[in-house]
């Protein structure tokens, strides 16, 4: 894999080959299947993200998998290859990042090895291989971590899965806007649809938690634009200085209307 590929994975999908020297916490992902290690992680991580309730660290940890999820779909769509994203091959890195002088806690996954796995050349094998790679990621990488969080934490697994669908939808929009070929976009469309068509058993749920029909609302800044409501609350209101997001499914439409009017009035002032 060349430097451009590695840079793309790091900047867009939180997958890296760089070991941080400013680590706040790090451990092989497989260690997080141990209840004591998961408890340690959550006790360290929740204050780092300024959570004032244990559920914040749990939800934010679930959100770590947004990047690898979208990275997997991108690699399969654009490269017709993928990395080994099993728990054995990834190491969690929590560190302090800096954006224009603003410091915040960030997380990525260090890849122990970066050999790309190519799709089968035979067309009749390709669809089954792709499905196996995508379903295997959710069933054998994400699900065990979510179950480990639920065992020691306060949130149920369903709430953890709820952190991913909105990112899946925005990831689709973003990829469709990228400067890639129509062939790549078509393959990406197929792969995103594949995710939503996976059997519920992959997620150990009664139905596929990523197959979500989003409610829409009027954009805060533009009455002619519709935006998605989040599929599940991200619990930002439990962060110091936090609040309910404009697209939070927990707030009433009347409150959204008040926020819209207040925002637009400020813009016109």
Q: Descriptors for this entry?
A:
269 residues; alpha+beta; two-stranded antiparallel sheet; 9 helices; globular
- The percentage helix is 40-55%
Count of β-strands: 8
Q: State the shape.
A: globular
Poorly predicted runs of 5 or more residues: none
Q: Strand count, sense and closure of the main sheet?
A: 4 strands, mixed
Class per helix and strand makeup: alpha+beta
Overall pLDDT confidence: 96
| Count of the domains | 2
Distance between the termini: 52 Å
H/E topology pattern: HEEHHHEEEEHHHHEEH
- The helix count comes to 9
Strand content: 5-15%
Strand order of the largest sheet: 1-5-4-2
Measured on Cα atoms, how large is the radius of gyration? 19 Å
Structure description:
This protein folds into 2 domains: 3-210; 213-269, no CATH class. The chain is built from 9 helices and 8 strands. It has helices spanning 3-13, 35-48, 54-63, 66-79, 123-152, 157-161, 165-176, 182-197, 253-268; strands at 15-16, 23-28, 81-82, 90-99, 102-111, 117-118, 216-218, 226-228. A hairpin with a 2-residue loop joins strand 4 and strand 5 (102-111). Helix 7 packs antiparallel against helix 8.
Helix and strand topology:
Elements: H1 3-13, E1 15-16, E2 23-28, H2 35-48, H3 54-63, H4 66-79, E3 81-82, E4 90-99, E5 102-111, E6 117-118, H5 123-152, H6 157-161, H7 165-176, H8 182-197, E7 216-218, E8 226-228, H9 253-268
Parallel strand pairs: 1-5
Antiparallel strand pairs: 2-4, 3-6, 4-5, 7-8
Helix pairs in contact: 2-3, 2-5, 4-5, 4-7, 4-8, 7-8
């Amino acid at each position: 894999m060349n430097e451009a590929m590695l840079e793309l994975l790091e900047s867009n999908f939180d997958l890296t080959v760089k070991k941080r020297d400013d680590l706040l916490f790090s451990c092989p992902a497989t260690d997080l299947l141990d209840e004591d290690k998961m408890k340690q992680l959550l006790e360290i991580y929740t204050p780092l993200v300024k959570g004032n309730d244990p559920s914040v660290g749990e939800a934010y940890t679930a959100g770590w998998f947004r990047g690898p999820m979208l990275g997997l779909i991108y690699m399969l769509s654009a490269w017709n290859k993928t990395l080994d994203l099993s728990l054995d091959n990834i190491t969690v890195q929590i560190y302090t990042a800096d954006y224009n002088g603003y410091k915040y806690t960030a997380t990525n996954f260090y890849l122990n090895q970066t050999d790309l796995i190519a799709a089968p050349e035979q067309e009749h094998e390709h669809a089954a291989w792709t499905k196996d790679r995508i379903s295997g990621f959710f069933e054998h990488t994400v699900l065990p971590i979510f179950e480990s969080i639920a065992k020691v934490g306060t949130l149920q697994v369903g709430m953890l899965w709820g952190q991913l669908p909105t990112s899946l939808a925005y990831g689709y929009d973003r990829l469709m806007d990228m400067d890639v070929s129509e062939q790549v976009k078509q393959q990406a469309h197929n792969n995103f649809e594949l995710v939503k068509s996976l059997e519920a058993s992959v997620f150990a749920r009664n139905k596929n938690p990523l197959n979500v029909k989003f409610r829409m609302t009027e954009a805060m800044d533009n009455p002619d634009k519709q935006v998605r409501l989040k599929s599940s609350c991200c619990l930002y209101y439990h962060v110091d200085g936090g609040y309910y997001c404009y697209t939070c499914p927990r707030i009433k439409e009347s409150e959204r209307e008040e926020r819209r009017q207040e925002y637009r009035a400020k813009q016109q002032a």
